[in-house]
Amino acid sequence: MSVGEGQLKARTSGRTAGGKPVSSKAGDFESIATTPESVDADTSSTKATVPWWVRDASSYAFTCLTVLSFVTRYWRIWDPAQVVFDEVHFGKFASYYLRRQYYFDVHPPLAKMLIAAGGWLVGYDGGFLFDKIGLDYMSHGVPYIMLRGWVALFGAALPLLVYMIMAESGYSVAAALLAGLLVTFDNALVAHGRLIMLDNIMLFFILATVYAYVRFFKQRHRAFSAQWWAWLIGSGAMLGCTVSCKLVGLLTIPLIGSAVIYDLWRIIDIRRGTTMAQFAQHFAARVVGFIAVPFALYLGFFYIHFAVLTHTGPGDGYHTAQFQMQLIDSPMAKSSFNVHYGDEIAFRHRDTGVYLESSTARYPLRYEDKRVSSQGQQVTGAKKSSDAAYWRIIPASRQDDTFEGFMARLRHTDVVQLEHVVTGGLLRTHDVASPLMPTNMEFTVAAANDTAATPDTMWQIRIDGAIGNTTQLKTSASFVRVVSEQHGVAMWTHLKPLLPEWGGRHQEINGNKKPEEKSAVWTVAKIRGRVATPAEQEEMRRRVTPMSFLAKYAELQGLMLHHNSALTATHPFQSSPISWPLLTRGISFWTDNAQRRQIYLLGNPAGWWMADVALLLYAMLVPLLEFFRRRAVRVIDPVAERHLQRSTAFIVAAWALHYLPFFLMGRSLFLHHYLPSSIFAYMLLAAMFHFFNFDDYRRFSLRNWNGRARALLPSPIAALVFAVIAVVHIATFVFFAPLTYGSRSLPPDEINSRRWLSSYDLHFQK
Amino acid sequence: MGSYRSKPAVFYDQSTNFDDIHLPARPAGFSAYPTAGKGTHSGTTAAFASSGGSRRWAWLGGTSERAMIVMLTLVAVVTKLYRIGRRNSVSWDEAHFGKFGAYYLNQTFYHDVHPPLAKMLVGLSELLAGHNGSFDFKGGHTYPAYVNYRFMRVFNAGFGIALTPMAYVTCRKLRMPTEFAAMAALFVTFDNALCVMSRFILLDAPLLGFTGLALTMLACFYRQRQHPFSTDWWRFLLLTGLALGLVASAKWVGLFAVTLVGSFTIVELFEMFCNTRLPMRVYAKHWAARIVALIVIPLCIYALCFKVHFSVLSRYRSAASFMPIGFQTKMRGNPISRQPYEIHTGSAVRLQSHTSATGYLHSHLHNYPMGSMRQQITGYGYADPNNIWNIRRVAAAGSFQHAEDVLATGDPIAGAIGNGDIITLHHNSTNTYLYADPGFEAPFSKKYREVSAMKDNEPGALSSNSLWVVEIVNPERRMNDGQIHPLGTPIRLRSAAMGCTLLSTGERLDKNWGWNQAEIACDIDKSSTQDSGGYLWTIERHINANMTSVNLGKFMSSSFLRDFGVVNRQMWITNNALVPDHDKHNVLESGPISWPFMVYPMRMVGWDDGSIKYLEIGNPLLWWASATVCLIFPLQLFYWLVRWQRRSFNWMPDQFREYIEGAMILWGGWVLHYLPFFLMGRVTYLHHYLPALYFSILFLAYQIYHTCSWYMSRRGLIRVLYVCVSVVAFTFWWFSPLTYGWDKPIKDLKGMQWVSSWPVYTDKFAL
């Protein structure tokens, strides 16, 4: 309650301080920097005194930034002519699009499709697969300069967007230019911005979202006008693109979401005269703009994704059989037979790809951990299929052992016995602990005449996704669980550890007490002697039931989320979020041992640390001002304070929401996850520069990014501060540039002089 | 102060919240808060405030209030004590806490994750019950005749009983009328879980009792807000601090109560800060009063509990081995304080690292698989002959440059070893020297050098690499004679060859070749300050047959603050080590998410047909209703916030503030006693929810009263009250067989299997 009350007071005081009549129209006391009237009044009174180079400073600054950002991104973009770091992934994915082969990746498709589109435009055929860091582009004929240049367009646009956001938010030309320069000369953004990687494309869309949202917010006094709608939809569309680039883009949603909630909270205030019907319109418009539009775009990109990737490719294996059968040339669609009783089949484990096989070898009496086995015949999982991997299917009840019964097709929930073709025994599980896992049951083979073992040899066939018990078991296409009828355990195997020497280093097969587990799924790899004729293949392909787009999408999305959270394998260059703002360590992108060159991803240390100082300043300033306000002590101009609490707070929120959630993530994290936040930290640095040096907001603030300026700098001190920050930042950039561009070989002493922190593990230190 | 007290309204800027909002005319049909219940409300409040009887107990209200309190207490006494001694064997965690209590009787040291107060109270109850400390409380054993377990349980149940009147007073202080405060107290009385957990010798009852006390005192203090620095204000502020000290000393979970009071205080101080009419001088006084009462006093009580704990437990037991050596040497019957005083060439010593997990300097007949491939040097935590090193003085202090010459003669020098002397350390059982090798990196920490054990018959074994300079660091004041002594003189060992310092890196060696023992290495970097634990070693054991042992205890100093710090740190470590073992499914553990709706009640004893069975199950209606109310409250807040923004908010400002302040104390208590468990890595049990449950039950009554009073007449309110109390009492009775013990086959209790996951008569996890 008291917070809301605080706002009320602030508004009231702002109103009186602004000298406006209380009866002015509802929105006046809320505008970001100034009201249109006051600007006009200001400009008209000072127009005569503004020299041309001040008036057009905004255009010059923007032009200057454009030139600098293109120069920094495109300088020696052809070098190194080798695969660098994650180009290995993203270049490869682009190639798959051009080959139209299906692949799987945890990230949504937009950025990768954009890269591929660039390749398509320049006539690249996807012939190169970017298999290893350091592979040569020239000899493989890859138009990599074009690809990099295309991505660098997005990278080069970042400083410009930053300039536009700052200017639209009502900062001065100097602050906007400073933010632009900081982003232009950041080593990490440059290093990423000139390689075939996704981050800069996503950053472009993040900033575009923010820019469009600021424009939308500035239209709030003309709600439901054409422009208002345009920026609303535009902002939502950019949000949709952001999310479609990388999952990290999801973090932009809470940013826009919180801004929208803040906005709606103001709108619902009855003193604004909003009726509930009007509020409902506002609400609905935002649901459309910020939920429906992004989601539709997101789905749309997946639609294109599926429409382009029509052929079978390396991503098949992640998917269900039905999904795989949709792909042209999928082996699933070409050789999927019904399984009949009496067939001799080979089971293959879905996750690990081993075949269920048995041999005459027996389990040893005692294992290393002193447990005792049944000494039965071994059942193991072998990497290669052989005669020992075939099992004949026998109906469970011998009564219907007629020819018709025997020739029937195998269906979901059927109970069968599995006869090992080579040794003639029946697959059995019983209440003996398996060799490696005391909790799981041993699998072995029982002699056919061992009637005591019969209940142990009954297996129920459960087909995943079966509808009723009419679903038939097919080779390749059916995912099947083999569950013991007597014990309820499912046939299961696991990758590690392997069986010792006595088991031929095969995988252990055992009975898992949780038959529902994902890893308990097998396929019938083949039926002995059954090969599809071309006619049969054609027939089978015709009979594949098509899968709707939404079903495909739902399946892929589930897999993406699952595999993303499973990315927990440690990487030598992963880092913890706490170290990112401090820039304690970079990532080695590429090294060339012959010429002793390297690309090392590292932010601009001076810039990052200055930005950290700005963050600290803001964190101290806001509570301090709040305390003063609560004690009714006026220390700063209410306009400046409102600016600090709204547009600057938005930047800080953007920084925090793109950074803090990483602390909750379990997957392996990298320095480049901080890049969105680093841009917002730079913007905050510029905003703090503005706050501490500019006493009068109205006179210096820009209304539009290309608008006319009325004054540039309030004091020589401000100019000095600007110059110091810019010079230190650019000098540091130039100093670290050899590591960013990999442009020249540095002798060891120069390498060590760049190890500002001992944890910068640069190569060629000696 | 005077001026401030004369204008109580100043304290709370009455204009802050709502009176600049022009409330719309109230809808006619809406019965305004609390006009309907006005008769009871304001009437009893007046009676409550007015006196009657002695001035001393005026805060408890008039005669009728006291009669009500007595009646409620009687109900609580009956429910808590009914057949309390029925199961005459050690039940549930009585095995732990009865035993801990017994340690106070036989004055033997023990270590536990909980602070000592509650266990000292158990000890007190044993003392009063005439127990001599000889019964060891083995789980399931029948109590012998000389242990009056019934008295001990009654003593402990006293805390549970006290919860009822405290709940009543709390609700009265939060402005609930008599009837509904009584309802809240009856709810607390008729919860089966609170009841059953109070009926055994456990720590839950004292914890709950002190938590309830803290809440009551906070509520009393809250009502003194208008009269700052009055006698009652001081009394309740100090009592709140006292209660916080008690609750934190009972179990660390009590710190949540501290957080509750802390948050309350911060909000209060912040609101005062915003009141510009309050002079800064007075404001500073508010701060000072709260710092003294709510920080200093609880800390003192907490420390005092440990002081008593230490002074009572004066007999040595190996459990004390983690304590500072100074503390151990002061204990009766300790094995370490009698050792020869001066250390000479030929003395056998055991070196203990100052990092706690490292243990003793150790070597064994296994080699490093890398580096020099020589015999390993490790840190090992347990007594073992391989921890013994023979010390030889090779050169006196200052003759470092002559080490090579000394080596040539090879003769050790007799005499006591002092600061700066050069020694060798000879490992007796493997005939090796402690040997620093500059040529190799340490096995794990690459920035350090390797330390190995060099066979003494190999050429070069006795070289400058096996010479070590002794440096004494911060010796005990009474041992500061420049010589090394057992226990009291921490030493650093610096290699004569490289000047590197022996340290325990804190890393563990590989399980396969190093048996997970601690890594020992040599730090060549002389620039770093080397006073931290890893570099320091204490001669923990000194064996020299030629010398007579003396009592070293008289040289050792011990500081309470250091002992206090060490024991708390150890509690923290032990507590964090109680992590759930995922391989082993434990039926007794349950995750916090399952608590509010009581998904998994817990069997407290074996479940065979003949035994007397107790189930830790709450009153389901109370649990479910209170959880629902707590979860809905944020939505209510949001709803009111929107109404406020729409200015269709029809509370009277003061009434809303009074309502919301009470609600935030109770609901906030629930949140602070519940949510932190989600962050804990350690194992959690259902009874960890009980303090939170206490808050949520009071909040349930609070919400029932307020919600109903918006819509109902006084008569309707009373009817609601009767229905609530009787339904709750009935459910309590329905489940009472599980609370008071059930000795017949469990099949007869089918009617209590309300939820399939309850282990009443089926057991999902039965093996």
TrEMBL record, chain A:
Q: Which GO terms describe its molecular function?
A: dolichyl-phosphate-mannose-protein mannosyltransferase activity
What does the record give as EC number? 2.4.1.109
Q: Which Gene3D superfamilies match?
A: 2.80.10.50
Checking SMART domains in the record gives: MIR (SM00472)
The protein's predominant localisation is endoplasmic reticulum
- One annotated Gene Ontology cellular component of this protein: endoplasmic reticulum membrane
Carries keyword Electron transport? no
Where's it found, cell-wise?
A: Endoplasmic reticulum membrane
Residue ranges constituting the MIR domain according to the UniProt record:
336-396, 407-464
Q: Report if keyword Lyase is assigned.
A: no
Q: In which pathway does it act?
A: Protein modification; protein glycosylation
Q: Where is this region: Disordered?
A: 1-27
Q: Which reaction does it catalyse?
A: a di-trans,poly-cis-dolichyl beta-D-mannosyl phosphate + L-threonyl-[protein] = 3-O-(alpha-D-mannosyl)-L-threonyl-[protein] + a di-trans,poly-cis-dolichyl phosphate + H(+); a di-trans,poly-cis-dolichyl beta-D-mannosyl phosphate + L-seryl-[protein] = 3-O-(alpha-D-mannosyl)-L-seryl-[protein] + a di-trans,poly-cis-dolichyl phosphate + H(+)
Keywords in alphabetical order? Endoplasmic reticulum, Glycosyltransferase, Membrane, Repeat, Transferase, Transmembrane, Transmembrane helix
What is the topology of this protein in the membrane according to its UniProt annotation?
Multi-pass membrane protein
Q: What does this protein do?
A: Transfers mannose from Dol-P-mannose to Ser or Thr residues on proteins.
The family assignment reads: Belongs to the glycosyltransferase 39 family.
Protein name as catalogued:
Dolichyl-phosphate-mannose--protein mannosyltransferase
TrEMBL record, chain B:
Q: In which pathway does it act?
A: Protein modification; protein glycosylation
Segments passing through the bilayer: 57-78, 207-222, 234-250, 256-275, 287-310, 621-642, 663-680, 686-705, 717-735
Please list the reactions this protein catalyses.
a di-trans,poly-cis-dolichyl beta-D-mannosyl phosphate + L-seryl-[protein] = 3-O-(alpha-D-mannosyl)-L-seryl-[protein] + a di-trans,poly-cis-dolichyl phosphate + H(+); a di-trans,poly-cis-dolichyl beta-D-mannosyl phosphate + L-threonyl-[protein] = 3-O-(alpha-D-mannosyl)-L-threonyl-[protein] + a di-trans,poly-cis-dolichyl phosphate + H(+)
This protein's membrane topology, according to the annotation, is: Multi-pass membrane protein
Keywords assigned by UniProt, alphabetized: Endoplasmic reticulum, Glycosyltransferase, Membrane, Repeat, Transferase, Transmembrane, Transmembrane helix
Under Pfam families, the record lists: MIR (PF02815), PMT (PF02366), PMT_4TMC (PF16192)
Could you say which enzyme class this protein belongs to? transferase
Gene Ontology MF term list: dolichyl-phosphate-mannose-protein mannosyltransferase activity
The answer, when asked if Glycosyltransferase is one of the entry's keywords, is yes
MIR domain span: 340-394, 414-473
Q: What is the role of this chain?
A: Transfers mannose from Dol-P-mannose to Ser or Thr residues on proteins.
Identify the PANTHER family for this entry: DOLICHYL-PHOSPHATE-MANNOSE--PROTEIN MANNOSYLTRANSFERASE (PTHR10050), PROTEIN O-MANNOSYL-TRANSFERASE 2 (PTHR10050:SF46)
User: What's the protein here called?
Assistant: Dolichyl-phosphate-mannose--protein mannosyltransferase
Annotated organism of origin: Coemansia reversa (strain ATCC 12441 / NRRL 1564)
